[in-house]
């Protein structure tokens, strides 16, 4: 690592800072970290989510770090299982694979069948001595961090704090009981969706160093050919992943922090299965709303507001001046926003923001960096199947559902800005009903959405103190429909009148009694016919008859109450 650092400093002194040179150094760093073992692999993976610390070339190379090491002897793994669970192997399993089916830096996984139930399970066994090795590595690195903080001025981040954060996360991963609890919480929050699958944990066969969970049959999400051979579509699965990621980020704030393709499987039933819950993170509630606001400011190209958002997101200390950041945001996004936001490639945004974050004194919170990585991974998988895929456009069904059902007024207003100002929701004159219809259509793409759940929020939105713009649109639309029905009926009446009466009605005007052009009359007639066609639909007729029947029953009931009411006795009060 010292030799590598010396090469990087020498490159800077010589002015050799081209993208090609940085890419070569990034490949070299990835190789070194892999060779140094599990602690440094984990550190590299952590750095791959920190655009405030690393240039783009390093982020991309470190993201490819393979979380794997050679397997350790099976005898040691089986001894660990018996020691941790307190039973001999043959009393726990009726069968177990003789060698691991997967190996990672912290442990390896066996496939087994429980003796008492016959259920297939995955048994994850921790690598022997890993705690001591990682503890020593972090102890030495923390000491080095003190020296860097004290003597290296070009490093603005607190290296000791970073090491402490990395160490905390890695040691959390070493506690398999904690990982089981993470899986249980994730399942409770997100597996209510019929498309999301989370394996059950077998607590009687789980300890700090052995984790036993339900076996999930599936294919890694980056194996497109294998997925399609089962009659599934990668894009459908990615869309499920995006909707689930947005729920994790914006609803409950508890999310999977290591969503690489090996941890997400496509099951034969078309479900998306999440695995490996060692690394989890949480988004503060205030930050969830601030993220939506940040996207709204991006839509509006309000770069000053975008820069101020970084205070709310805890990217910047309150005493940092954001005015120099505004031109950098403007320079990037004015070029990127040459279409509607829904057409933007998510990686383009991440790369652009990463360049800005790297140049200025930002400190990106772990939750933000990790969710960016999650969505970038999903978009990367989708781009293999469809080069035109846009993760932001795929997010619109979720945002539409939130607009129609979320009670938070600030969030609702932000979503109105996002959905209505972007071109995706503009059709022709963009009448209110077209907009609401689009929202309902988008919302129904979420399988858990129910239109009845949207009625009360829509009415609150329409009748609330901030709904003046929508009320104006409603009035205009109501007047337009009423006018079309009235004028259309008059035109029909005039056309049906006897010929000898028409001159009297039109005062001798051969063009008729109406001072409208033929085009205007055709538009009115077309609109009126559209309304009548809707009213002739079976559902509309049923609705009308149910309303009329309900009103009739209500009036009849009240009439009978009046007739059968016993008159009060004279003199009673």
UniProtKB/TrEMBL annotation:
Domain of life: Eukaryota
Species whose genome carries this gene: Paspalum notatum var. saurae
PANTHER family assigned: CHAPERONE-ACTIVITY OF BC1 COMPLEX CABC1 -RELATED (PTHR10566), PROTEIN ACTIVITY OF BC1 COMPLEX KINASE 3, CHLOROPLASTIC (PTHR10566:SF120)
Protein name in the entry: Protein kinase domain-containing protein
GO molecular function: ATP binding; protein kinase activity
Family from the record: Belongs to the protein kinase superfamily. ADCK protein kinase family.
Residue ranges occupied by any Protein kinase domain in the UniProt entry: 95-434
